[in-house]
Each structure stands twice: as C-alpha cells, then as structure tokens.
Specification:
Layout (H helix, E strand, L loop, with lengths): L1 E2 L5 E2 L12 E3 L22 E3 L18
Antiparallel strand pairs: 1-2, 3-4
Length: 68
C-alpha cells in the first residue's frame, strides 16, 4: 500500500515475470587427460552458449574445492 502525501492509501496491482537464462555447454564430452592428476594444475576449454534473450554471466572456479 502506498499513501500519497498523507491521503488515502493507493493500491497498485502489478505482475512480474521471472526469466532464467538458457545456457548450455556446447561440448558433449571432455578429455581431461592429465588435468586430473593431483598436485598439477591444468585447464580445459569449453564453449558456453547463451540461447536466451537476456545476458548472463557464468563463473566456475574449482581451485578452492580440495575434494573435487
């Protein structure tokens, strides 16, 4: 409820719609080779595709996850 300058409360009805981005990884499989060797750092490239009409940001950093 909104009150305009001490007057009667004003009720404003509105609707919202949530849109989630549709993001997918283009590659079906990955060859990790020696990337998974404990104690060695490595990297793996992947192609991220945003198929939605809204912008999206993806961050993935597993360096601080010793159990992975």
């Amino acid at each position: 409820m909104i009150s305009l300058r001490g007057g009667q409360p004003l009720r404003v009805d509105f609707n919202v719609q949530s849109i989630l981005p549709k993001v997918r990884i283009l590659e079906n499989d990955f060859d990790f080779g020696e990337v998974t060797t404990l104690g060695n750092s490595g990297f793996q490239y992947m192609t991220i595709v945003n198929e939605s009409d809204i912008d999206s940001v993806l961050g993935l950093d597993l360096r601080e996850r010793p159990d992975d």
